[in-house]
């Protein structure tokens, strides 16, 4: 009728977990205080963001200038 199978025990794998503590490891502190490293890191990030935004604005201004010249050319062709 039904075939019988022998049940085998599957060995369990051991998993180790490393717990990290807050503090000198560079993780965010819960009390909100900051040290010179986090201030320097934030300043570098802010500098990068401002530089990137300035590049984007320069590219947009260049596109705007191209569009203005194209618009002027189209207006000249319409008038003539």
UniProtKB/TrEMBL annotation:
- State the signal peptide span: none
Name a single GO cellular component.
mitochondrion
Database matches in Pfam families: IATP
Alphabetically, the GO molecular function entries are:
ATPase inhibitor activity
Question: What spans are recorded as compositionally biased (Low complexity)?
Answer: 25-36
Tell me the superkingdom of the source: Eukaryota
Q: What are the protein's UniProt keywords? A: Coiled coil, Mitochondrion
InterPro entries from the UniProt entry: ATPase_inhibitor_mt (IPR007648)
Q: What's the family?
A: Belongs to the ATPase inhibitor family.
Role according to the record: Inhibits the enzyme activity of ATPase.
Protein name, entry field: ATPase inhibitor, mitochondrial
User: Source species, please?
Assistant: Pichia membranifaciens
């Amino acid at each position: 009728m039904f075939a019988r199978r022998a049940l085998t025990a599957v060995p369990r794998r051991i998993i180790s977990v490393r717990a990290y503590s807050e503090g000198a490891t560079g993780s965010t502190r819960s009390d909100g205080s900051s040290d010179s490293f986090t201030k320097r890191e934030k300043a570098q990030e802010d500098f990068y963001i401002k530089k990137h935004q300035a590049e984007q604005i320069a590219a947009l201004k260049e596109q705007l200038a191209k569009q203005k010249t194209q618009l002027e050319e189209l207006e000249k062709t319409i008038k003539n």
